[in-house]
Write a structure and sequence with these properties.
This is Mannitol/fructose-specific phosphotransferase system IIA component (Ntr-type). Pfam families: PTS_EIIA_2. GO terms for molecular function: transferase activity. It comes from Treponema rectale. Keywords: Sugar transport, Transferase, Transport. The protein contains six helices and five strands. Strands 1, 2, 3, 4 and 5 form a five-stranded mixed sheet that branches. About 45% of the residues lie in helices and about 20% in strands. It has a single domain, classed as 3-Layer(aba) Sandwich (Mannitol-specific EII, Chain A), CATH 3.40.930. By secondary structure, it is of the alpha/beta class.
Length: about 150
């Protein structure tokens, strides 16, 4: 249920245009800022890149989960992106990323941070989840998938 509070139809990108991690962060943060004007674009990017310097958030199975923590927001917000062609990301398994779940968490909300990542982890363990994401044709379908799969 936490994921549905973080993502909305306005923050789901069905066809990412980015070809690199840097472009991806800018494209997705802009989507978040458009939907959540309280988010400071520059601070969001700094938080995400700072986290990424510690260790890549490109995990396995073509998935990346970039996330950052911000003092300037009260509630978590995020975006989902799907890339048909794949994005060079420096993932742990060396593969291009096709599914991106970006989170910006409030510095005051550790439990929400953990709940969201746990929920997403459970979804990603389902064998057909990314296939269903790939087959989705609209942001509404992606949200429905998140709801139905939770």
């Amino acid at each position: 249920m936490v994921l549905q509070q973080i993502f909305s139809e306005n923050t789901i990108i069905m066809n990412l245009e980015s070809e690199s991690k840097d472009e991806l962060f800018h494209e997705m943060v802009q989507k978040i800022v458009d939907a959540c004007p309280a988010v400071d674009r520059k601070a969001a990017l700094e938080s995400l890149f700072s986290r990424e310097e510690k260790m890549t958030t490109g995990i396995v199975y073509q998935v990346a989960i970039p996330h950052g923590v911000m003092d300037s927001i009260d509630t978590a917000c995020g975006a989902v992106g799907i890339s048909k062609k794949g994005i060079e990301y420096g993932s742990l398994d060396g593969n291009a990323v096709h599914y991106v779940f970006m989170f910006l968490f409030s510095a005051d909300d550790n439990s929400g941070h953990l709940k969201a990542l746990k929920e997403l982890s459970c979804l990603l363990q389902k064998p057909d989840f990314t296939r269903k994401l790939s087959d989705a044709s609209s942001p509404k379908e992606v949200l429905s998938l998140l709801r139905d799969t939770e």
